[in-house]
From TrEMBL:
One of its GO terms (molecular function) is glycerol-3-phosphate O-acyltransferase activity. InterPro entries: GPAT/DHAPAT (IPR022284), Plipid/glycerol_acylTrfase (IPR002123). Pfam families: Acyltransferase. This is GPAT2 acyltransferase. It comes from the Eukaryota. GO terms for biological process: fatty acid metabolic process; glycerol-3-phosphate metabolic process; phospholipid biosynthetic process; piRNA processing; triglyceride biosynthetic process. The gene is Gpat2_0.
Length: 213
């Protein structure tokens, strides 16, 4: 991050350093926000009531869930869930399942097409977003300060062993790797290349609905 900031403004005086720090904090604020414990408890109470109104039942494969719980107990290795994506409910549903089963509250990568108010709410519930300047990058050859801050952020999430949830596709375009997913996967590869973590446990997740909400 320091190298990318210095490339943008190599002068190095006190004023330029302060501007770089403010820019880095602004980019980080676009990616995440502090979690809100009260909002998390409220959603954990409300979500089962919402799910019972939307669905007749929610079914989990018990054997596969036991495998995930064993994987979550592996020391020093973070969990990364790579998910199909059929509905805007997927992130809330999967977060609720992981939290209720003791895996922990995941950081969920959310699509770029989100209103500012909804974005602010989801960030405080564990959602993470691409910086706006990077979200429009279609090529994997991104660079600059937003990319450096995002790389550092993902590496810190993995080091702290917070579960990370990445949706590989958009609900409107199933079976095709979405551009945001490509950028998030690039962060994982860079974290492994730079040895930020010794390894990651990749968990494929399939969510199916009789009728998608």
């Amino acid at each position: 991050v320091q190298d990318a900031a210095s490339d943008r403004d190599p002068a190095g005086d006190e004023g330029s350093r302060r501007r770089r720090e403010e820019e880095i904090c602004r980019i980080l604020g676009e990616i995440q926000a502090p979690l809100c414990p009260l909002l998390l408890r409220l959603c954990h109470w409300l979500l089962p009531k919402l799910l019972t109104r939307l669905f007749l039942s929610v079914q989990l494969h018990r054997g596969q869930l036991e495998m995930v719980l064993r994987a979550a107990s592996t020391p020093e290795v973070p969990l990364v869930f790579l998910c199909s994506h059929q509905s805007q409910m997927d992130g809330l549903l999967l977060s609720f399942v992981l939290l209720s089963q003791g895996v922990g509250l995941p950081r969920v990568a959310v699509g770029a097409r989100t209103s500012p108010r909804l974005r602010s709410l989801l960030q405080r519930l564990g959602g993470i977003f691409l910086p706006p300047g990077l979200a429009q990058t279609r090529s994997g050859r991104d660079k600059g300060l937003p990319a450096a801050v995002l790389d550092a952020y993902v590496q810190e999430v993995l080091r702290s062993r917070q579960p990370l949830v990445l949706f590989l596709e958009e609900p409107a375009a199933p079976r095709r790797l979405a551009d945001p997913a490509r950028l998030w996967l690039l962060r994982l590869l860079r974290a492994l290349r730079d040895r930020a973590v010794p390894d990651v446990l990749v968990v494929p997740v399939g969510i199916a609905y009789d009728v998608a909400p």
